[in-house]
# Entry
Amino acid sequence: MWSRHSSRSCNRSCLRSDRSECEPAAAREYLESFVSLGLVLEHAGTPPTYERNDAFLEWDHVRRLADDHSLDELEAELEELLERIQMYQDRYGVDTPDEVDAATAETAPADFADWTAARARLRRYERARQIRLSGSERSR
# Structure
């Protein structure tokens, strides 16, 4: 196994292979399979570098929501999220947490973390609902 201090050149897959206790060739093979699945993105270069594909992971999460929940369940969650977001909009008098001044945001960090999370969850559930609706229309 190559170490980070080896005299041979070493790409990031090699560095990761040290941590995961696998050979560099095996690490590269895994990375290439992750690229083919869409889990990671490969950037050209010598050696190539890799990064997590957040868009794929987000899509996969949304797809799983659509698969795991009925349309009624998705819509019930959407309603709860909309109510929670509306509560924060009413409380702070703005549409998004980004519009709140820094001094106010510092006084209630949990509110802003929850508000931001609720907005992200709302987007996922809306997309899952759309997937579910498109599937319902095909089955008619």
Q: What stands out?
A: Confidence is low (pLDDT under 50) at residues 1-15.
